[in-house]
Amino acid sequence: MKKSILTLFFILLFSCSLYPQCTEPVNGSSSSELSGVTFQGDTTGKVPLNHSLYNLWEKIDNSMISPDGKWVSYELNPGKGDGNLILVNLFNKKSDTIKRGYDAVFSPNSDFIAFKIKPPEDSTRKAKLEKKKKEQMPKDSFGVVSFLNLGGKELFIDSYFKSGNLVSFKVPEENASWTAFTLENSKNKKDTASRSNIKTYEFIVLNPVTSKKFEFADVSNFSFSKNGSKLGFITLKKGKNDTSSVTLFDTREQKEKEIFKSQGYIKNISLDDKGTQSAFIYSPDTAEVKRYGLFYWSAAENKVRKIADMNSTGIPYDWEISEHANLNFSEDGTMLYFGTAPKILQPPKDTIPDDEIAKLDVWHWDDPLLQTQQIHELEKEKKRNYRAVYHLTDKTDVVNRIVQLEDKTLETVRTSLKGNGKYAAGISYKPYLKMQSWCDPEYSDIYSVNVLTGERKLIFEKARYRAWISSGGNYILWFNSDDSSYYSYSNIKNEYYQLTKSIHLQFCDELWDMPNPPEPYGIGGWIQNDSYVLIYDRFDIWKFSPDNSELPVKLTEGRESQTRYRYIKLDPEEIFIKNDEKILLKSFNEDNYSEGYYSLIVDSGELPKKLIFQDYHFSGLKKSKKADKIIWQKCTYTEFNNIWNSNIDFSGQEKISDANPQQTKYLWGTAELVKWKGPNNEDMRGILYKPENFNPENKYPMIVYFYEKYTDRINYYYPVAPSRSVINFPLYNSNGYVIFLPDISYDIGYPGESALKYVMSGTAYVISLGFIDENNVGLQGQSWGGYQVAYIVTQTNFYKCAMAGAPVANMTSAYGGIRLESGIVRSHQYEDTQSRIGVTLWDSLSLYIKNSPLFLADKISTPLLLMANDADGAVPWQQGIEFFNALRRLDKKVWMLTYNDDQHNLTKWPNRVDLSIRMKQFFDHYLKGEPMPKWMSEGIPAINKEIDKGLNN
Fold first, then answer.
1. Which structural domains are found in the chain, ordered by start?
2. Cβ–Cβ under 8 Å, residues 420 and 335
3. How far apart are CA 292 and CA 658, in angstroms?
4. Where would a tag sit more exposed on the chain, N or C end, judged by fewer CB atoms within 10 A?
5. How far apart are CA 340 and CA 402, in angstroms?
6. Are 709 and 683 within 8 A, CB to CB?
7. How confident is the model at residue 232 (pLDDT cuts 50, 70, 90)?
8. Contact by Cβ (8 Å): 778, 19
């Protein structure tokens, strides 16, 4: 007779738990006790996965469909090694492979595709072994395939163009069959007389359809107009007197025209959408710090003139034109956006040796940002600039041509109508920068900004979450976490509206379990003319009038079926939704995790129409710009994430990729949703991954992995790949392990106990099903999961072994630690977010101690494998050292892996493979009775670490 789940929970929790007399785990089975589990092969002829197969599994990246809907491209990349660019003709279903191609772009006319080509990995590896300098290393090439005259009969009948030593390439967005690219300037040596460090390149303008090619030398920068009619580029002739020029190339007439030339330096060229206006910055200065002016050309005037410099009206005193800002025209071409910054002083000449200068960082208690964060952001700060606008035409409200929109008190301004709008939303974080150390997300003040005059109005203080400017610029929308309501402000009427007050539902996360206020679900977008805004609740989409002139309308009925609906933006250029437009919605059922797509016409009064809804995970949906054709990907745990194409209503579905066919040769696994009741009758759920050809009469070893919640990923596919930090589920399934992933919800102040409750009750439930060897169950987690593993083994000795990657062991020291990847102090994690203590260290020291595994290390009897990498930017690796040393002092069985100069989650391939091998050896020893490898039985002395990895027995 099986034990009840509740009984098992308490047996697991208290058996050999927290009692000093229990010095060994209650398990200890030998490999002979694992009868009934088949680990090698099966009757189908399939074999288990192993570490030698990592390079066989490929992933699909950067899928695209051509504007005319007739072509698809995608990258097929192995975990390590040379990938390929795949081109598919949807008319005749033929495909071709461009070896090592990547970063492809279709032309706007769908008559060619341009891409980069990586050098072969073996040639790069050879150059590394030969210790070649960076400039001597193999470079990317540029490739173009033209298929203008295809007609559906052959795959490629035009040309294939390739050129080596690529620096960059561009393709215009609209109506052109041109591309332009720069190549390393191999012919010219550095001119020692030049004072410039600006790099110049060979420059080629190419029409792949006609094979017309134009070549230019010494080009530093270039830019297309959006419609592709003009191409502007900057040339720098280096010498004793460096001379710069700007040339416009007309792609229709195929002629170039030099519009400006002078001694000095030009940067940041831009053209308007139609190619009738251009702007750039120029300085005649030869000093290290240069003063730039803003210059402007128009086809109507047919001349270049300076329109702004540091002395211009509208530029703040002691500020100047920034060389680091992008130049952008508004869509209608009436406004030019540029950047300004406080004037940079010329650096003083060195008068004393470097070793006689004191070098230090001065920390001040009232600094807005910590020194560590300031230093981390130093290069960014040196280039910081503030947005300004130059009004190119006369407008009624314009007083000054130049309006400074951003400054040190208002760092961010979001414009509307693609830069055309009269109003913008301003966001200022400055009053709350210091609070970022303990508040997340950071507070901000919201302003209404008049783009024509620069006038600002503070409309809301201390907002917790982001603000939106409406597509037409008439309204600013934000979520007030104090009363959990959305508000809008009319820029025209100067009036406020509380939008969601009349709806007795939450428009912020209903399942939120962190100390900070729940996040809003967000908005879907704005309806044409700012007439409505689409706002999400947990499941549904609501249509609100931003001035409350109409009652809200619920457009979907998702709550009844626990189905979530979200708008999918198919056109990146779209800024609003038309009332009569048929839009696409992504759907997701929170009960059974089915997914799919629906269509909806906003003003039809009808509910969404189902297009596809299946037990798959859908992703990567993209629509062709000029045809009703789409591509998307779908997968399950057992089925790879291949690409499909169809009409926009999902009729005519066809699979167009077939990656990883080798999977059929290997044992895999299945994913199953499990639900159970917790010790207090809570609804709990998790994912159970079972080995292929699972036999319920067998007893399987099990590894319990967890982070927070994973069940909504039940249909995710996990390729066979070396671990960055977490066990590879298919690899372990294939080798006879059951993997269990329980969802965890948290009580504020008690994250460790919360994890213990959910993990232990879930383990008890799965054991009650009868096919788990309860004497051979292990734990694994990384980062937040690693912390929870470390805590759980202080509370129970049930688990045979455990692996904790990057765990926080001591919350009292981690509280004031620094995240090296950002320079930010970790306090906010404990007070406001993931670590969920909810109070400061001084408000409740006891909670920090109670939740810290370090202070309970003497209770641990579970053999423990730790990972703490010395370049971890998220969790200080000293946390691993503290924990390891405590366990070592207590004579506990513990090992720690420190991968040198690698990160929180491993990035280096050899380290990832090494971790995968060691982690599996660890679990195989304890859960399967395999022999202990040398690194576990004897350790690896530092003097031998480059010679003997200790992976053999």
1. 59-353 (2.130.10), 666-944 (3.40.50.1820)
2. yes
3. 54
4. N
5. 11
6. no
7. very high
8. no
